[in-house]
Every structure is written in structure tokens, then in C-alpha cells.
């Protein structure tokens, strides 16, 4: 039986060596290892092997089965890799790829918002938020804005049937924050959408993006306001940027200023452009919110503060020389791709 097994092994390996397609390989497998295959038939003879030889014959049987199985597997692998090679024959893997869709990039508005937020966070401001659908009280009354103020006009503001409105500025987040804080100081920034019924053109959309800031504590001064915002604009536009504070009026700050920066574009006359509104929080605002709170954290002229609000769309436009605000919402990849 040992001799039979050896010759079976030799025969099988010789046949497998010449099996050059899958069908021949499968036929050989059935012939030798199948239910009625020669190895299976031979192993049935184990019954008649004398007891003292069973161990040796058993071991041989195993050895032959393993040798045949391995030969089949390695032949299978060789056939498969020949097939793989054939399927890529003629393809030059060293050619450059065809350009498909490139990796995406952040929207210029997202980038400027992130830059503004991270710059102010370094100065100790934390993020705050409020709803875009606001009450008149949060958007106007608490901000010392009289009932006949033009901003409250139906022509300028989107009102809901229930009397609420789409906030016209993020200054309502000042109110939301002062209404709910537990302690001082308050040092928040609130980026977010604001809505106005503007005629849409190159510089106006009915939805735009603002960033509000508010700092309230025992001794916040105009010097703090100037220092903070000058630093901020120099971080955004570069250390040489000239910043000026021009007296203005807002109902909720006193004194109030508009901030201009000097825009210096090569080949053009430098010109001042308005970039933000700001001022010292009007005591009337503290008093109105203190009344609502019913405690004395903010009332009685105990605290001072400054606030500012800027347009993020405008910031992005100035920074990148974008001349039409509508580019920012049109999702045209020819435009967006320039910020990759
Ligand atoms: N809310 C004002 C605006 O939208 C900007 C502003 C914010 C002014 C805070 C002063 C203080 O025009």
C-alpha cells in the first residue's frame, strides 16, 4: 500500500503540472480527491492494513493528501494570477491619472468665519447663539430701538403672522446672553444669519452673515473696545492695516462708531471702507434687561460694556477682492475652486 500511495502521488503531481486551465485542474481534483477519486478509494483499504502498519500507512496517506491538495492550490493561484495579468495587459500603470473631481475645500465664508472666531477666542471670547426667528423685544425694544425706528418698518423687515420676525441683526444675541447669564464677565461672540428686505444687487442679499461681539464687566472702557477691534482687524487684514473709528449712531450703544479700514489696492487710490459698527453698551439696554431679569447683576449703572457687529460676507469680499456678493451663494465651482 505504501508503494501504491507513492506512485499515486507521483502520478497526481505529474498530471497537475500539466493542467493548464481551470477545467483540467478541476477534473484532476475530482479524479484524485473526489468522493470516488483514487486517493479516497485507496484510503478505504486502511481497513485491511495489519494493525502494526496502520500508523505508518496512515501517515503516508495524510502526506499524499496534503501534497496533492497543496499542488492543486498553488496551481489555482498561478492560474488566477495569469488571468489577472491578462486582464490588465496593455494598461500602462505609469501614465498620469485622468483628472476627476478634486478634493473639496471650505467655502470662503466658512473660512473667514473660522478665522474671525478663532482670533476672538484667543482674546477670551466664547461662542453664543440665539434664534433666527426673534421677538420684537429681543431684536428692538431691549436694544433701546423706538417703535418708529425705520429698521422696524414692514418694508425693511420680514415679519411672521404671529408678530415675530427674522432677526435683522445678531445684536439680539447680546440680549439673549445678558438675559440668561449667571455671572460676570460676559465676553461672547455670535456669528450667524441676519435678514433684511433689501433689493438684491451686487452688495445686498436678503440673508447675510454677521458676527456680534459683547464684553460686559465692572470696568470695561472705550480703550478696551478700540484695542480689541484694532487688534482683530490687523489679525484679519495684516499688521499694517489702518483702522479708524468714526462717530455714528446706534440706539443701543453710546457713544457709537463705525469702523473703517484703509483699503490699499495696488494701482488704486487708497480709500476708507466701512467694516463694522460698535460702541459702548447704552445704560438704557442694561436697565431694560435688568428689569426683565429681576435681579441686580446688570442694573444701576454698576457695569459697562462694549459691543460690535460686523458683516462676514463683506469681510470675505474685501479680503478676496470679490465684487459681487451673489457669488457667495451661487455655488459655482469656477468661483469656489479659486479658494482651494
Ligand atoms: N447691529 C448693528 C448693525 O447690524 C451693528 C452693531 C452691533 C452696532 C453692535 C453696534 C454694536 O448694523
| Biggest β-sheet strands, sense, barrel | 7 strands, mixed
Bound molecules: phenylalanine
Question: What is the fold named in CATH at topology level of the largest domain?
Answer: BirA Bifunctional Protein, domain 2
Outline the low-pLDDT stretches. Answer: none
Descriptive tags:
about 350 residues, alpha+beta, BirA Bifunctional Protein, domain 2, 2 domains, 7-stranded mixed beta sheet, two-stranded antiparallel ribbon
Question: Could you describe the 3D structure shown?
Answer:
This protein is α+β, with helices and mostly antiparallel strands and 340 residues long. It has two domains: 2-83; 108-339, Bira Bifunctional Protein, Domain 2 (BirA Bifunctional Protein, domain 2), CATH 3.30.930. Helices cover 41% and strands 19% of the residues. The chain has eleven helices and nine strands. The strands form two sheets. It has a seven-stranded mixed β-sheet with strand order 1-4-5-9-8-7-6, sandwiched between helices. β7 (253-263) and β8 (271-281) form a beta hairpin. The longest helix is centred in the first third of the chain and has 37 residues, at 51-87. The protein is elongated and about 115 Å long. The two termini are 76 Å apart. 27% of the residues are buried. Phenylalanine binds at residues 169, 171, 250, 253, 277-279, 307-309.
Outline:
The chain is 41% helix and 19% strand.
What's the SSE blueprint?
Blueprint lengths: L1 H17 L3 H12 L4 H7 L6 H37 L20 H15 L3 E2 L5 E2 L1 H4 L25 E2 L5 H9 L5 E10 L11 E11 L4 H16 L5 E8 L2 E11 L7 E11 L1 H11 L10 E8 H9 L12 H4 L4
Parallel strand pairs: 1-4
Antiparallel strand pairs: 2-3, 4-5, 5-9, 6-7, 7-8, 8-9
Helix pairs in contact: 1-4, 2-4, 5-10, 7-9
The structure holds phenylalanine (PHE).
Phenylalanine binds next to strand 8 and strand 9.
Amino acid at each position: 500500500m505504501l508503494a501504491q500511495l507513492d506512485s499515486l502521488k507521483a502520478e497526481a503531481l505529474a498530471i497537475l503540472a500539466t493542467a493548464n486551465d481551470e477545467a483540467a485542474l478541476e477534473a484532476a481534483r475530482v479524479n484524485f480527491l473526489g468522493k470516488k477519486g483514487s486517493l479516497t478509494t485507496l484510503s478505504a483499504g486502511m481497513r485491511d492494513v495489519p494493525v502494526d502498519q496502520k500508523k505508518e500507512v496512515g501517515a503516508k496517506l495524510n502526506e499524499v493528501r496534503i501534497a496533492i491538495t497543496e499542488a492543486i492550490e498553488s496551481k489555482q493561484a498561478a492560474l488566477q494570477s495569469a488571468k489577472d495579468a491578462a486582464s490588465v495587459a496593455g494598461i500602462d500603470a505609469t501614465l498620469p491619472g485622468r483628472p476627476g473631481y478634486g478634493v473639496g475645500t471650505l467655502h470662503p465664508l466658512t473660512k473667514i468665519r473660522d478665522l474671525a472666531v478663532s482670533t476672538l477666542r484667543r482674546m477670551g471670547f466664547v461662542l453664543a447663539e440665539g434664534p433666527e426667528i426673534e421677538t420684537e423685544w429681543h431684536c428692538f425694544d431691549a436694544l433701546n430701538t423706538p417703535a418708529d425706528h425705520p429698521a422696524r418698518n414692514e418694508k425693511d423687515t420680514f415679519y411672521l403672522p404671529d408678530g415675530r420676525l427674522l432677526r435683522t441683526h445678531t445684536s439680539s444675541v447680546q440680549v439673549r446672553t445678558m438675559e440668561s447669564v449667571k455671572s460676570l464677565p460676559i465676553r461672547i461672540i455670535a456669528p450667524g444669519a441676519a435678514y433684511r428686505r433689501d433689493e438684491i444687487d451686487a452688495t445686498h442679499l436678503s440673508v447675510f452673515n454677521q458676527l456680534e461681539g459683547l464684553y460686559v464687566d465692572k470696568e470695561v472702557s472705550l480703550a478696551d473696545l478700540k484695542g480689541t477691534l484694532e487688534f482683530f482687524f490687523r489679525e484679519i487684514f495684516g499688521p499694517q492695516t489702518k483702522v479708524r473709528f468714526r462717530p455714528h449712531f446706534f440706539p443701543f450703544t453710546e457713544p457709537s462708531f463705525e469702523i473703517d479700514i484703509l483699503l490699499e489696492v495696488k494701482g488704486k487710490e487708497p480709500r476708507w471702507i466701512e467694516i463694522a459698527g460698535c460702541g459702548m453698551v447704552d445704560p438704557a439696554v442694561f436697565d431694560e434687561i435688568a428689569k426683565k431679569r429681576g435681579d441686580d447683576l446688570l442694573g444701576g449703572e454698576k457695569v459697562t460694556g462694549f459691543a460690535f457687529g460686523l458683516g462676514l460676507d463683506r469681510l470675505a469680499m474685501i479680503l478676496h477682492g470679490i465684487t459681487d456678493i451673489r457669488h457667495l451663494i451661487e455655488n459655482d465651482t469656477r468661483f469656489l475652486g479659486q479658494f482651494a
